[in-house]
TrEMBL record:
Name of the protein this chain belongs to: DUF3829 domain-containing protein
InterPro entries xref list: DUF3829
Record keywords: Signal
Family matches, as Pfam families: DUF3829 (PF12889)
Length: 308
């Protein structure tokens, strides 16, 4: 599945790298989601986000689990060269623990965070000693006996942690979207057309990229039908945003305002590029073209996050 990196706008990286994990469009989950309006709640969501980013990063949980499975311990021999990784899971777990300790009650999200931290603790308790076992080649001394005895349990710990991460991601996305909807209402009420359009465009871009959660989605006509609707809506919104930015620039008097409007314009340009890449993907059904679309989305989220 697409590996999700959620900031204050979702960043996606690594096409189909995360097996059995819900994407940014995932619904469901237990418990209610309250709109985070206090500074404490906002800070806690950001901290949770940072922890999640680390957990699904290059050497995070999905990659570490995938690398372990590829070793196929059950079929290996003591004479084989076997190695496993601990990845960056412990660092991400530390960030998650720090985030949980922050003030601000977030209901279901806090519950899922606690469950994820517990799953990671259990995972690391088994993974650390096994890493040493393979790293020191101790498996050659016991004819791989311990490795094979613990293989099923190690795989189960990875599966449990991945499921806990999926549940946490769902709760985190729901919490962030509740806040985004509140922010959209606030921007609209304030008459900030440029800000409103930008926020809405980022949401639509997220929905477009998040349609593709597994390789077979790249050839699914029903998914592309949904994508066409989103892409068409986003394209219309970007045309409206160009007019809104031009009007705002004609009224802007401060250099800071003009600079910010310039960034809004760059965000719109990159989103336009992303729409073009989506249409290319529709023709090619290529994973490489999907990655190009994801890369553009990553960059545009970085731009949007830089707008003060």
């Amino acid at each position: 599945m697409l590996k999700l990196k959620i900031r204050q706008g979702v960043v996606l990286a690594g096409l189909f790298a995360l097996a059995a994990c819900g994407g940014a469009g995932s619904g469901g989950g237990n418990g209610s989601t309250a709109v985070a309006t206090s500074p404490d709640a906002t800070a806690k969501i950001s901290a949770y986000t940072e922890a999640y980013n680390g957990l699904i990063d290059t050497f995070g949980l999905p990659r570490t689990a995938e690398d372990y499975r590829k070793e196929n311990i059950a079929s290996r021999s003591p004479s084989d060269d076997i190695s496993i990784s601990q990845g960056w899971i412990e660092t991400a777990q530390g960030k998650l623990k720090t985030a949980r300790a922050l003030p601000g009650a977030l209901g279901a999200l806090d519950v899922k965070a606690e469950a994820l931290e517990t799953a990671l603790t259990n995972l690391l308790a088994r993974l650390g000693p096994l890493y040493s076992y393979y790293n020191t080649k101790a498996y050659r001394a016991d004819a791989l006996k311990r490795g094979k005895e613990e293989d099923a349990a190690m795989t189960a710990e990875f599966d449990a942690a991945l499921k806990a991460m999926e549940d946490f991601n769902t709760a985190l996305v729901q919490q962030r979207r509740a806040g985004a909807d509140a922010e959209l209402a606030k921007l609209k009420s304030a008459g900030d057309t440029v800000g409103y359009n930008n926020k809405l465009a980022m949401q639509q871009a997220e929905e477009l990229v998040s349609l593709f959660n597994k390789p077979e989605d790249l050839k699914d006509a029903a998914i592309f039908a949904k994508g066409d609707v989103i892409a068409g809506s986003l394209e219309k919104l970007l045309a409206e945003q160009q007019k809104a930015i031009a009007e705002a620039k004609s009224k802007a008097t401060e250099p800071v305002q003009k600079s910010q409007l310039g960034v809004y314009g760059l965000v719109g340009d990159m989103l336009g590029t992303m729409i073009g890449q989506y249409r290319q993907l529709k023709q090619s059904h290529s994973g490489n073209d999907m990655n190009s679309m994801v890369d553009s989305y990553n960059r545009v989220v970085g731009m949007a996050n830089d707008i003060n």
